[in-house]
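Practice set, problem 2.
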Amino acid sequence: MDKQLFHIAQVNVARYIAPPGDPILDDFVAQIEAINALAETSPGFVWRLKSEYDNDALSLRPFDDERILVNLSVWEDVDSLKHYVYKTAHAAVMRDRKKWFERMQEPSMAIWYIPKGTIPTIADMKIRLAHIQQEGTSEFAFDFKNLF
Protein backbone atom coordinates (compact mmCIF):
# COMPACT_ATOMS: atom_id res chain seq x y z
CA MET A 1 0.00 0.00 0.00
CA ASP A 2 1.31 3.45 -0.94
CA LYS A 3 0.93 5.37 2.34
CA GLN A 4 1.22 8.66 0.44
CA LEU A 5 -2.26 7.98 -0.94
CA PHE A 6 -3.86 7.28 2.43
CA HIS A 7 -4.68 8.86 5.76
CA ILE A 8 -5.82 7.00 8.85
CA ALA A 9 -9.22 7.15 10.48
CA GLN A 10 -9.64 6.36 14.16
CA VAL A 11 -12.61 5.72 16.36
CA ASN A 12 -12.68 5.37 20.09
CA VAL A 13 -15.67 4.98 22.32
CA ALA A 14 -16.11 5.30 26.05
CA ARG A 15 -19.05 4.75 28.37
CA TYR A 16 -19.77 7.44 30.93
CA ILE A 17 -20.07 6.31 34.55
CA ALA A 18 -23.28 8.36 34.82
CA PRO A 19 -25.95 9.66 32.42
CA PRO A 20 -25.03 12.70 30.27
CA GLY A 21 -25.62 15.88 32.22
CA ASP A 22 -24.71 14.36 35.57
CA PRO A 23 -22.49 16.77 37.56
CA ILE A 24 -19.85 14.06 38.03
CA LEU A 25 -19.03 14.51 34.31
CA ASP A 26 -18.72 18.31 34.45
CA ASP A 27 -14.92 18.30 34.77
CA PHE A 28 -14.59 16.16 31.65
CA VAL A 29 -17.11 18.19 29.63
CA ALA A 30 -15.36 21.42 30.65
CA GLN A 31 -12.15 20.18 28.95
CA ILE A 32 -13.67 19.14 25.62
CA GLU A 33 -13.41 22.50 23.84
CA ALA A 34 -9.71 22.92 24.68
CA ILE A 35 -8.85 19.31 23.86
CA ASN A 36 -10.67 19.52 20.52
CA ALA A 37 -8.88 22.79 19.71
CA LEU A 38 -5.58 21.11 20.58
CA ALA A 39 -6.39 18.26 18.20
CA GLU A 40 -7.29 20.64 15.39
CA THR A 41 -3.98 22.49 15.73
CA SER A 42 -1.86 19.36 16.14
CA PRO A 43 0.48 18.31 13.35
CA GLY A 44 -1.14 15.68 11.16
CA PHE A 45 -4.75 16.46 12.10
CA VAL A 46 -7.20 16.34 9.16
CA TRP A 47 -10.81 16.12 10.41
CA ARG A 48 -13.01 15.19 13.37
CA LEU A 49 -16.66 14.30 13.82
CA LYS A 50 -18.88 17.10 15.14
CA SER A 51 -22.59 17.35 15.63
CA GLU A 52 -24.56 19.58 13.32
CA TYR A 53 -25.20 22.03 16.17
CA ASP A 54 -22.08 21.92 18.34
CA ASN A 55 -18.34 22.02 17.85
CA ASP A 56 -18.06 18.57 19.42
CA ALA A 57 -19.61 15.10 19.24
CA LEU A 58 -20.96 14.99 22.80
CA SER A 59 -24.60 15.05 21.69
CA LEU A 60 -24.21 12.35 19.03
CA ARG A 61 -25.63 8.94 19.93
CA PRO A 62 -24.64 6.46 17.21
CA PHE A 63 -25.20 3.57 19.62
CA ASP A 64 -28.37 2.66 21.53
CA ASP A 65 -26.72 3.44 24.87
CA GLU A 66 -26.97 7.16 25.72
CA ARG A 67 -23.88 6.86 27.92
CA ILE A 68 -21.56 5.92 25.03
CA LEU A 69 -19.42 8.79 23.83
CA VAL A 70 -17.77 8.52 20.43
CA ASN A 71 -14.70 10.16 18.93
CA LEU A 72 -14.07 9.77 15.20
CA SER A 73 -11.21 11.57 13.48
CA VAL A 74 -8.82 11.49 10.52
CA TRP A 75 -5.07 12.00 10.74
CA GLU A 76 -2.27 12.07 8.19
CA ASP A 77 -0.56 9.10 9.83
CA VAL A 78 -0.45 6.93 12.95
CA ASP A 79 2.55 8.78 14.40
CA SER A 80 0.68 12.10 14.38
CA LEU A 81 -2.32 10.56 16.13
CA LYS A 82 -0.13 8.76 18.65
CA HIS A 83 1.75 11.97 19.47
CA TYR A 84 -1.51 13.84 20.08
CA VAL A 85 -2.96 11.08 22.25
CA TYR A 86 0.08 10.45 24.46
CA LYS A 87 2.42 13.47 24.23
CA THR A 88 0.09 16.49 24.56
CA ALA A 89 -2.39 17.76 27.15
CA HIS A 90 -4.70 15.01 25.89
CA ALA A 91 -2.57 12.55 27.88
CA ALA A 92 -3.84 14.10 31.15
CA VAL A 93 -7.41 13.37 30.08
CA MET A 94 -6.37 9.80 29.37
CA ARG A 95 -4.82 9.49 32.82
CA ASP A 96 -7.99 10.80 34.48
CA ARG A 97 -10.48 8.81 32.39
CA LYS A 98 -11.43 6.53 35.30
CA LYS A 99 -13.13 9.55 36.90
CA TRP A 100 -15.68 9.74 34.07
CA PHE A 101 -15.70 6.46 32.15
CA GLU A 102 -16.28 2.79 32.86
CA ARG A 103 -13.63 0.26 31.97
CA MET A 104 -14.65 -1.23 28.63
CA GLN A 105 -14.81 -5.02 28.46
CA GLU A 106 -14.07 -5.16 24.74
CA PRO A 107 -11.79 -3.14 22.46
CA SER A 108 -12.91 0.47 22.31
CA MET A 109 -10.59 1.78 19.59
CA ALA A 110 -9.98 1.01 15.93
CA ILE A 111 -7.67 2.56 13.34
CA TRP A 112 -7.87 1.98 9.58
CA TYR A 113 -6.56 3.41 6.33
CA ILE A 114 -8.75 5.60 4.14
CA PRO A 115 -7.97 7.20 0.79
CA LYS A 116 -6.84 10.81 1.19
CA GLY A 117 -9.75 13.19 0.76
CA THR A 118 -12.42 10.86 2.12
CA ILE A 119 -14.27 11.19 5.40
CA PRO A 120 -15.37 8.11 7.36
CA THR A 121 -19.03 7.70 8.18
CA ILE A 122 -20.72 6.53 11.36
CA ALA A 123 -21.46 3.27 9.52
CA ASP A 124 -17.74 2.87 8.65
CA MET A 125 -16.85 3.49 12.27
CA LYS A 126 -19.30 0.88 13.54
CA ILE A 127 -18.06 -1.74 11.06
CA ARG A 128 -14.38 -1.22 11.97
CA LEU A 129 -15.05 -1.21 15.69
CA ALA A 130 -17.21 -4.35 15.46
CA HIS A 131 -14.49 -6.05 13.41
CA ILE A 132 -11.76 -5.41 15.96
CA GLN A 133 -14.10 -6.50 18.78
CA GLN A 134 -15.14 -9.73 17.05
CA GLU A 135 -12.14 -10.67 14.90
CA GLY A 136 -9.21 -8.88 16.52
CA THR A 137 -6.71 -6.68 14.73
CA SER A 138 -5.94 -6.92 11.03
CA GLU A 139 -5.23 -4.52 8.19
CA PHE A 140 -9.00 -3.87 8.16
CA ALA A 141 -8.99 -2.51 11.74
CA PHE A 142 -6.02 -2.26 14.07
CA ASP A 143 -4.75 -0.43 17.16
CA PHE A 144 -1.55 1.17 18.42
CA LYS A 145 -0.22 -2.17 19.69
CA ASN A 146 -0.87 -4.01 16.41
CA LEU A 147 -0.09 -1.69 13.52
CA PHE A 148 -0.52 -2.75 9.91
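Problem 2, part (b): a different protein.
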Amino acid sequence: MRVLVTGGSYGIGGATCLRLARDALAKGEPAKIVVSATGVRPDLAELIAELTALGADAKAVTGDLADRDFPKRLVDEAVGFCGGLDALVSNAGARYKGSLLDMPVEEWDRVYAVNTRATWLLGKAAHAALKASRGAIVVVTSIAGKYPLANYGPYSTTKAALIMLVEQMANEWAGDGIRVNGVAPGSTLTREKSQMKVDPKLSAMRAAVVPMGRVSDPSEQAGAIAFLLSKDASYISGHNLVVDGAFGQSVMAFSAGSHSNALKIP
Protein backbone atom coordinates (compact mmCIF):
# COMPACT_ATOMS: atom_id res chain seq x y z
CA MET A 1 0.00 0.00 0.00
CA ARG A 2 1.47 3.30 -1.15
CA VAL A 3 -0.72 6.06 0.18
CA LEU A 4 -0.87 9.80 0.74
CA VAL A 5 -3.09 11.01 3.59
CA THR A 6 -3.70 14.71 4.19
CA GLY A 7 -4.55 16.08 7.59
CA GLY A 8 -3.01 12.94 8.99
CA SER A 9 -1.46 13.89 12.29
CA TYR A 10 -4.46 13.26 14.55
CA GLY A 11 -8.08 12.18 14.56
CA ILE A 12 -9.49 10.52 11.45
CA GLY A 13 -6.36 11.08 9.36
CA GLY A 14 -4.01 9.56 11.92
CA ALA A 15 -6.35 6.64 12.57
CA THR A 16 -6.53 6.03 8.81
CA CYS A 17 -2.74 5.91 8.50
CA LEU A 18 -2.52 3.37 11.32
CA ARG A 19 -5.35 1.24 9.92
CA LEU A 20 -3.88 1.13 6.43
CA ALA A 21 -0.44 0.28 7.78
CA ARG A 22 -1.78 -2.54 9.94
CA ASP A 23 -3.91 -3.94 7.12
CA ALA A 24 -1.02 -3.96 4.65
CA LEU A 25 1.45 -5.46 7.08
CA ALA A 26 -1.03 -8.12 8.17
CA LYS A 27 -1.16 -9.24 4.53
CA GLY A 28 2.62 -9.30 4.31
CA GLU A 29 2.62 -6.28 2.02
CA PRO A 30 4.90 -3.26 2.40
CA ALA A 31 3.30 -0.04 3.62
CA LYS A 32 4.63 3.30 2.43
CA ILE A 33 2.73 6.24 3.86
CA VAL A 34 3.15 9.98 3.37
CA VAL A 35 1.29 12.13 5.88
CA SER A 36 0.70 15.84 5.47
CA ALA A 37 -0.17 18.46 8.07
CA THR A 38 -0.18 22.24 8.26
CA GLY A 39 2.77 22.45 10.64
CA VAL A 40 5.21 20.42 12.74
CA ARG A 41 3.41 19.28 15.88
CA PRO A 42 4.27 16.66 18.49
CA ASP A 43 1.36 14.45 17.40
CA LEU A 44 2.69 14.36 13.82
CA ALA A 45 6.08 13.13 15.00
CA GLU A 46 4.36 10.64 17.29
CA LEU A 47 2.31 9.27 14.39
CA ILE A 48 5.39 8.82 12.19
CA ALA A 49 7.14 7.04 15.07
CA GLU A 50 4.15 4.75 15.61
CA LEU A 51 3.90 3.91 11.91
CA THR A 52 7.62 3.16 11.81
CA ALA A 53 7.31 0.95 14.88
CA LEU A 54 4.61 -1.03 13.06
CA GLY A 55 7.04 -1.65 10.21
CA ALA A 56 5.78 0.96 7.73
CA ASP A 57 7.94 3.42 5.81
CA ALA A 58 6.46 6.78 6.74
CA LYS A 59 7.24 10.39 5.95
CA ALA A 60 5.73 13.67 7.11
CA VAL A 61 5.36 16.63 4.76
CA THR A 62 4.17 19.97 6.09
CA GLY A 63 2.55 22.78 4.14
CA ASP A 64 -0.60 24.80 3.61
CA LEU A 65 -3.21 23.30 1.28
CA ALA A 66 -4.61 26.80 0.78
CA ASP A 67 -1.46 27.46 -1.26
CA ARG A 68 -2.48 26.46 -4.79
CA ASP A 69 1.01 25.10 -5.54
CA PHE A 70 1.32 22.88 -2.46
CA PRO A 71 -0.99 20.00 -3.50
CA LYS A 72 1.17 19.19 -6.54
CA ARG A 73 4.39 19.48 -4.53
CA LEU A 74 2.90 17.18 -1.93
CA VAL A 75 1.84 14.57 -4.49
CA ASP A 76 5.24 14.75 -6.18
CA GLU A 77 6.97 14.10 -2.84
CA ALA A 78 4.61 11.22 -2.08
CA VAL A 79 5.14 9.59 -5.48
CA GLY A 80 8.89 9.98 -5.13
CA PHE A 81 9.00 8.56 -1.62
CA CYS A 82 6.59 5.69 -2.29
CA GLY A 83 7.74 4.87 -5.82
CA GLY A 84 4.21 5.39 -7.09
CA LEU A 85 0.82 5.75 -5.48
CA ASP A 86 -2.02 3.32 -4.83
CA ALA A 87 -4.29 5.56 -2.80
CA LEU A 88 -5.03 9.15 -1.90
CA VAL A 89 -7.02 10.12 1.18
CA SER A 90 -8.07 13.78 1.12
CA ASN A 91 -8.90 14.33 4.76
CA ALA A 92 -7.53 17.76 5.69
CA GLY A 93 -10.16 20.37 6.34
CA ALA A 94 -10.62 23.94 7.48
CA ARG A 95 -13.56 25.60 9.12
CA TYR A 96 -14.52 29.08 10.29
CA LYS A 97 -17.13 29.76 12.92
CA GLY A 98 -19.28 32.77 12.25
CA SER A 99 -22.53 33.88 10.70
CA LEU A 100 -22.85 34.41 6.98
CA LEU A 101 -23.58 38.08 7.61
CA ASP A 102 -20.36 38.68 9.55
CA MET A 103 -17.93 36.35 7.77
CA PRO A 104 -14.93 37.97 6.05
CA VAL A 105 -14.53 37.05 2.39
CA GLU A 106 -10.94 35.98 3.09
CA GLU A 107 -12.10 33.32 5.56
CA TRP A 108 -14.77 32.05 3.16
CA ASP A 109 -12.18 31.74 0.39
CA ARG A 110 -9.67 29.97 2.64
CA VAL A 111 -12.14 27.28 3.71
CA TYR A 112 -13.04 26.67 0.06
CA ALA A 113 -9.37 26.55 -0.91
CA VAL A 114 -8.45 23.94 1.72
CA ASN A 115 -11.58 21.80 1.63
CA THR A 116 -12.62 21.79 -2.01
CA ARG A 117 -9.99 23.26 -4.32
CA ALA A 118 -7.14 21.32 -2.70
CA THR A 119 -9.00 18.02 -3.11
CA TRP A 120 -9.39 18.69 -6.83
CA LEU A 121 -5.74 19.73 -7.17
CA LEU A 122 -4.54 16.67 -5.23
CA GLY A 123 -6.61 14.36 -7.41
CA LYS A 124 -5.43 16.10 -10.56
CA ALA A 125 -1.78 15.83 -9.52
CA ALA A 126 -2.13 12.19 -8.45
CA HIS A 127 -4.08 11.12 -11.53
CA ALA A 128 -1.16 9.72 -13.53
CA ALA A 129 0.20 7.68 -10.62
CA LEU A 130 -3.23 6.36 -9.68
CA LYS A 131 -4.00 5.50 -13.30
CA ALA A 132 -0.79 3.48 -13.45
CA SER A 133 -1.71 1.53 -10.29
CA ARG A 134 -5.48 1.49 -10.92
CA GLY A 135 -5.74 3.07 -7.51
CA ALA A 136 -8.41 4.82 -5.50
CA ILE A 137 -9.24 8.10 -3.85
CA VAL A 138 -11.30 8.59 -0.70
CA VAL A 139 -12.42 12.09 0.24
CA VAL A 140 -13.53 12.79 3.80
CA THR A 141 -16.73 14.78 3.35
CA SER A 142 -19.19 15.26 6.24
CA ILE A 143 -22.84 14.94 7.12
CA ALA A 144 -22.62 18.76 7.19
CA GLY A 145 -22.55 18.46 3.40
CA LYS A 146 -26.12 17.12 3.55
CA TYR A 147 -27.50 19.13 6.49
CA PRO A 148 -26.74 22.82 7.14
CA LEU A 149 -24.61 23.53 10.20
CA ALA A 150 -25.51 26.92 11.66
CA ASN A 151 -22.64 29.42 11.85
CA TYR A 152 -20.36 27.16 9.79
CA GLY A 153 -21.58 28.25 6.37
CA PRO A 154 -18.43 27.76 4.31
CA TYR A 155 -17.74 24.41 5.97
CA SER A 156 -21.16 23.00 5.12
CA THR A 157 -21.15 24.34 1.58
CA THR A 158 -17.61 23.12 0.85
CA LYS A 159 -18.55 19.65 2.08
CA ALA A 160 -21.63 19.68 -0.15
CA ALA A 161 -19.39 20.65 -3.04
CA LEU A 162 -16.99 17.82 -2.14
CA ILE A 163 -19.80 15.26 -2.41
CA MET A 164 -20.44 16.42 -5.98
CA LEU A 165 -16.70 16.60 -6.70
CA VAL A 166 -16.42 12.94 -5.69
CA GLU A 167 -19.15 12.07 -8.18
CA GLN A 168 -17.56 14.22 -10.87
CA MET A 169 -14.08 12.73 -10.46
CA ALA A 170 -15.50 9.21 -10.27
CA ASN A 171 -17.40 9.79 -13.52
CA GLU A 172 -14.51 11.33 -15.43
CA TRP A 173 -11.76 9.01 -14.20
CA ALA A 174 -13.55 5.65 -14.15
CA GLY A 175 -12.20 4.89 -17.60
CA ASP A 176 -8.68 5.35 -16.23
CA GLY A 177 -9.28 2.67 -13.61
CA ILE A 178 -9.45 5.14 -10.72
CA ARG A 179 -12.22 4.78 -8.15
CA VAL A 180 -13.30 7.85 -6.17
CA ASN A 181 -15.54 7.74 -3.11
CA GLY A 182 -16.38 9.82 -0.07
CA VAL A 183 -16.82 9.05 3.61
CA ALA A 184 -19.16 11.41 5.47
CA PRO A 185 -18.50 11.20 9.22
CA GLY A 186 -21.03 12.13 11.82
CA SER A 187 -19.90 13.36 15.24
CA THR A 188 -16.46 11.89 15.85
CA LEU A 189 -14.17 12.26 18.86
CA THR A 190 -11.32 14.09 17.13
CA ARG A 191 -8.93 16.51 18.80
CA GLU A 192 -11.28 19.39 18.00
CA LYS A 193 -13.95 17.66 20.09
CA SER A 194 -11.59 16.63 22.89
CA GLN A 195 -13.57 18.79 25.34
CA MET A 196 -16.14 15.99 25.38
CA LYS A 197 -13.57 13.76 27.06
CA VAL A 198 -13.40 16.04 30.10
CA ASP A 199 -16.99 17.31 30.14
CA PRO A 200 -19.33 14.40 30.97
CA LYS A 201 -22.47 16.50 30.44
CA LEU A 202 -21.38 17.64 26.98
CA SER A 203 -20.38 14.10 26.13
CA ALA A 204 -23.77 12.78 27.23
CA MET A 205 -25.62 15.44 25.23
CA ARG A 206 -23.67 14.62 22.08
CA ALA A 207 -24.30 10.91 22.50
CA ALA A 208 -28.00 11.33 23.32
CA VAL A 209 -28.93 12.72 19.91
CA VAL A 210 -27.33 9.82 18.04
CA PRO A 211 -29.61 6.76 17.69
CA MET A 212 -26.67 4.46 18.42
CA GLY A 213 -26.16 6.33 21.69
CA ARG A 214 -22.57 7.46 21.20
CA VAL A 215 -20.28 9.47 18.96
CA SER A 216 -17.87 7.57 16.74
CA ASP A 217 -14.22 6.86 17.36
CA PRO A 218 -11.80 7.96 14.61
CA SER A 219 -10.90 4.30 14.08
CA GLU A 220 -14.47 3.62 12.92
CA GLN A 221 -14.19 6.27 10.23
CA ALA A 222 -10.79 4.84 9.30
CA GLY A 223 -12.40 1.43 8.85
CA ALA A 224 -14.84 2.85 6.31
CA ILE A 225 -12.02 4.59 4.45
CA ALA A 226 -9.91 1.41 4.42
CA PHE A 227 -12.84 -0.56 3.03
CA LEU A 228 -13.41 1.87 0.16
CA LEU A 229 -9.71 1.72 -0.72
CA SER A 230 -9.65 -2.07 -0.64
CA LYS A 231 -10.28 -4.65 -3.34
CA ASP A 232 -13.53 -5.52 -1.54
CA ALA A 233 -14.86 -2.21 -2.88
CA SER A 234 -13.57 -2.80 -6.42
CA TYR A 235 -16.93 -1.96 -8.05
CA ILE A 236 -17.85 0.98 -5.83
CA SER A 237 -17.18 4.46 -7.16
CA GLY A 238 -18.92 7.81 -6.94
CA HIS A 239 -20.49 6.90 -3.59
CA ASN A 240 -20.62 9.02 -0.42
CA LEU A 241 -20.70 6.59 2.50
CA VAL A 242 -22.38 8.16 5.53
CA VAL A 243 -20.92 6.93 8.83
CA ASP A 244 -23.00 8.72 11.45
CA GLY A 245 -24.69 6.12 13.67
CA ALA A 246 -28.02 6.82 11.89
CA PHE A 247 -28.01 10.44 13.11
CA GLY A 248 -29.03 11.87 9.72
CA GLN A 249 -32.14 9.71 9.62
CA SER A 250 -33.27 10.65 13.14
CA VAL A 251 -34.89 14.04 12.53
CA MET A 252 -38.39 12.73 13.25
CA ALA A 253 -37.25 11.74 16.74
CA PHE A 254 -37.39 15.45 17.59
CA SER A 255 -40.98 15.99 16.51
CA ALA A 256 -43.61 16.78 19.12
CA GLY A 257 -44.80 13.73 21.03
CA SER A 258 -41.90 11.52 20.03
CA HIS A 259 -40.79 8.97 22.63
CA SER A 260 -37.40 8.33 21.03
CA ASN A 261 -34.38 7.97 23.27
CA ALA A 262 -32.83 10.70 21.16
CA LEU A 263 -34.94 13.20 23.09
CA LYS A 264 -33.65 12.14 26.49
CA ILE A 265 -30.96 14.78 26.66
CA PRO A 266 -29.52 15.32 30.15
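Answer key, part (b): The longest strand covers residues 179-185. Residues 91 and 140 are 5 Å apart (CA to CA).
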